[in-house]
């Protein structure tokens, strides 16, 4: 699978449930490339904005779309990576503020 195929697949499935890609296509391409790199590296699409352990069970909360996406988009209009955003975020109707990390510190790798 390449970036264009992943983009099309995710756009269909996620758009149907109200999630949109960031209108900055360079950001989206970079993040999708990171997802594909992590799929090749780990066997699953771990969030490219976080450090994965390489153990699926430990990383299940950060497999894209991560479990933090819904509350992030609901509260900030964007997920932590800025891959998935709300329509209002893309249209500039809400501020593009920093999305803080929701992942518990005991799950993070340093």
Q: How would you describe the overall organization of this protein?
A:
This protein is mainly alpha-helical and 110 residues long. The protein has helices at 3-15, 25-42, 56-59, 69-76, 87-90; strands at residues 20-21, 84-85. The N and C termini lie far apart (30 Å). Strands 1-2 form a two-stranded antiparallel ribbon. Helix 1 (3-15) crosses helix 2 (25-42). The chain contains five helices and two strands, in the order H-E-H-H-H-E-H. 43% of the residues lie in helices and 4% in strands.
Whole-number mean pLDDT = 95
Number of strands: 2
- Tell me what portion of residues adopts beta-strand conformation: under 5%
User: What is the helix fraction of residues, given as a range?
Assistant: 40-55%
| Protein structure class | mainly alpha
Strand order of the largest sheet: 1-2
Summed up, the helix count is 5
Oligomer: single chain
Topology overview:
Layout: H1 3-15, E1 20-21, H2 25-42, H3 56-59, H4 69-76, E2 84-85, H5 87-90
Short description:
The chain has 5 helices and 2 strands, in the order H-E-H-H-H-E-H. By secondary structure, the chain is mainly α. Helix 1 crosses helix 2.
List its salient traits.
110 residues; two-stranded antiparallel sheet; mainly alpha; globular
């Amino acid at each position: 699978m390449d970036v264009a195929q992943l983009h099309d697949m995710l756009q269909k499935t996620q758009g149907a449930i109200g999630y949109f890609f960031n209108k900055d296509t360079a950001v989206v391409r970079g993040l999708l490339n990171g997802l594909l790199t992590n799929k090749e590296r780990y066997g699953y699409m771990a969030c490219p904005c976080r450090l994965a352990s390489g153990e699926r069970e430990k990383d299940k909360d950060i497999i894209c779309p991560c479990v933090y996406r819904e509350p992030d988009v609901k509260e900030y209009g964007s997920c932590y990576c800025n891959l998935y955003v709300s329509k209002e975020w893309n249209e500039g109707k809400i501020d593009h503020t920093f999305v803080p990390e929701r992942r518990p510190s005991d799950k993070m790798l340093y």
